[in-house]
Design goal:
The complex is a heterodimer of chains A (164) and B (201).
Chain A: H1 18-21, H2 23-42, H3 46-75, H4 83-113, H5 120-146, H6 152-159
Helix pairs in contact in A: 2-3, 2-5, 3-4, 4-5
Chain B: H1 3-8, H2 25-47, H3 49-59, H4 65-95, H5 111-143, H6 153-178, H7 185-191, H8 196-199
Helix pairs in contact in B: 2-4, 2-6, 4-5, 5-6
Amino acid sequence: MLALPLNSQNLPYSDPIHPIVVHFVIAMVFFSFVCDVVGYFTGNARLFEVGFWNMFVGAIAIFAAIIFGQFEAGLAQVYPAAQPILNFHTVMGWLLGVIVAAITACRVVIRNHNPLKLPPAYLGVATFLICLGVIQVYLGSKLFWVYGLHVKPVVEAIKQGISP
Amino acid sequence: MNSQLIDQLGLRLGANGLPYEIPMHPQLVHLTLGLFIISILFDITGAISPIERPIFKFLGLPAIRSAFFHVGWYNLLGAAAVTFFTVAFGFFELLLTKPIVNQKSNWGLSVSWTMLLHGLGGILMLAIIVAMAVWRALQRHYWHKNASRQVQWNYLLIGILMFGILYFHGTLGAQLGEEFGIHVTAAKLLQEGANPYLLLK
């Protein structure tokens, strides 16, 4: 059995990596949407290019986020109160991985067809993605900032036997 | 700040010491860091465009060099705008902390030094990002308006140096949350001697 040496935050490295990788999913997907919407209403087609490339980066980053998320979720001391939120966050994470990849694929096709136009249907689907994204960020934030997963004082308290 | 000063503000604070459920500063940090880092990476991609052209060809993706510079510019503009709010929320939430004082971080720093360095560092980061946005605007709209390479090598070098500085600055901020448990509800409840596993639903 492979035994990983874990630190005081129950991780084999100094800081959790999932919250760092998600910078590039959250910022890129949200900014892509902002650029597309502004581009759509102002007719500034160069913003569609900015929207496309940001979504493209987001689509790559989301899979790295899922891998590190699964790894760090596996190492977290999840107590009963936090479990439903983690389950929800996990399912939603995989779902978003699929949606972001599919939206990016559609975007590649749209852009190959005509880089100067963006169909309103794309913006509609992207609006739905943003709503799911907001929920996902909220759930992930709750796991760390409310339940304290991988937070040193909380990890130590559990190791010292304060139990649910 | 101490309890009396915090009480004087008259805010309805939750168990995490904030008037809302989750801290806002770390949410805005996602935007600042993501936008800034990708901006510099796209400017680099644009600057060395002839080198990576075969990659995009292989992927079958039409890639126009000027579009990389559009991403570099608009992302930086977004980063500069958002960072004012990142720093503002950062200071608001920093003022509402009542951390455990007798511990040292991984880097051997006390909580007060970590808070001080991250607070002052935040102002410095804002100043540099805004200054780089002005520099980038001058390159885009005046100095290299019609050049095939819109950014100077100096600018990209400073951008890469910023990645290093942001790593240290970001880690200090991360330590405030993950090691000192600042504004982490479960950690605050433990600090007050309560059992978060029973209180949290």
